[in-house]
Amino acid sequence: ELPYYLNPDGVNQGHSFSVKYDTQDRLEAGLTSLLWSYRAPERTVDNRPLWEAEAGYSIRGSDSGLMASVGVNVLSGIQLRARYRQVSLASDQSSFSVELTSGLNLQNGISASSRGIDDLQTQGGITVQAFFDHNQNGQRDEGEASYASSDLLILDYEPLSEEQIEISDNRIAAQLIPGTYRLEIDPAGLPLDWYPLTDAYAVEVIAGGYTVVSIPLVQSYTLAGVVTDAEGKPLAGARVEAVQANDSTEAFSITNAAGVYYLERLSQGSYTIQVNGELTDTVALHEQSEPYMEMNLQMPVWSAENAAPESVESSSPAGAERLNLDL
Q1: Quick one: CA dihedral 248, 250, 256, 260, positive or negative?
Q2: The CATH fold of domain 221-326
Q3: Exposed (0-12), middle (13-18) or buried (19+): which is 45, by Cβ within 10 Å?
Q4: Which of 24, 72, 174, 250 has a CA positioned 20 to 30 A from the CA of residue 228?
Q5: E strand or H helix at 324, and its extent?
Q6: Strand order across the 95-102 sheet
Q7: CATH number of 117-217
Q8: 228-280: pLDDT as tens digits
Q9: CATH 2.60.40.10 region(s) of the chain?
Q10: Are 154 and 160 in contact (CB under 8 A)?
């Protein structure tokens, strides 16, 4: 078999094409098939696709015909499959079959009270896939790599340990009892300068399958610098804000005694930078921007018509209210 997987993560899910050759006897004609396959992203307890489908065209000697099959993993390790063939390795007659196959070791038998059967009927799980969402569209596009870490997930306020999870193909899987869980992202497990668009998810786990959770990670940007007054002196206790076009404040910082501010966890977009409500600068953050940028700010010089005497700052109720808010 010569497969080609369209999913960048490989064989576990998604579309694929393959050329397959089957034979029982080297002296007889074999069966050559050109196939399309699809494996669902939803997973069973043992991390198999919840369902899969296959369709294609087969050739055996002078005979040829269509083939198609659909399989559903009704329980972990047990699959119900319907198959139709116009030609097969053993016959040139059309056939239709319904098969129940098992990946379990049943040689010693199982009973209704077996723990294995109880687990198959009562367990579920989650499969978490985080990825670098470079264009911030919330979807994983071609070329956007996935990311996994053993200390990335917090479930119902408790970190998931390495013993509770399995990482494969940059996906994190964990078996859970069916129910509704609070899934959070642990900042300690995130790559540097990246953060999730959503910090917490409500996840429902159903018996016999895996609930897939897709987590986009977006680039985080930091602006930092020193705020000075009109005379160039560091301005302490000033409120620095990054405001987007819709007038929403993305982040704010209060300068320290040296006038230093930090605006962290900014996403891509255009911002106006305001100091104590006054526009001082603008900045546009995009995919090619540096994650950390230095931007020193200076309060604008007040013109004569809107200047206020120094005594007003301490005696004006409006000025006092603003000063208390800034502190």
Answers
A1: negative
A2: Immunoglobulin-like (2.60.40)
A3: buried
A4: 250
A5: helix 317-326
A6: 2-5, 14-22, 31-39, 51-60, 63-75, 78-85, 95-102
A7: 2.60.40.10
A8: 988 889 999 999 999 987 767 678 999 999 999 999 888 888 899 999 988 88
A9: 117-217
A10: yes
